[in-house]
Amino acid sequence: MMADLQNPTTDQLADWLEGKLSPADTAVLTQLVAATPSLQEQVAWLQEFLHISQTTTLADPPASVRQSAVATFAAYAQDKRPSGRLRTLIATLTADNWQRPALAGARHASLSREPRQLIYSSDLADIALNAHIPTGSQRVDLDGQIFPLDDSDPADFVIQLLQDGIERGLLISDDLGKFSLTGLPPGHYALVLSRDQDEIEIDPLELV
Fold first, then answer.
1. 84 and 38 in one domain?
2. What is the pLDDT of residue 106?
């Protein structure tokens, strides 16, 4: 049972509406809502919110707005870059789903049919990467997540994608250490993740 059903949180009420609670918790919360007008108002608002979020599709922003947002974020990421001398850590590939015997090597796989899942390890953090080509596209989407080994906050790593020494992407990891780079031409890259006075280098990163 939940720790506190007498004062349910918004998350608990949302779980109740979506049928995610146990039968016992559902029964108790159903009785509580039926007897509490203030909870009934909150549930009515949540129902409307959930309906709108499930049925509304947001249009893509105009190209000018998107370009302005990208430029603003790139400037923010640039300011976040560590200054001074950095300690460079070379990440080691520790897992690659394309190396399964069934695939008999990467040359027989395709990012459009078999997304590539990679795990890299370093003395600072582990990095999980997932690369794939969306249906109908010829470009690669790369999703990643950073897992610091000391359980520190994974947010605010600066992620820099390089190809032949030229910067192809610059962004910041979110509160969960996640980041995403989309629309990349297939090829060979280097990925550099830096924070404070440390940087982790993944080179080469094959997105082919």
1. no
2. 45
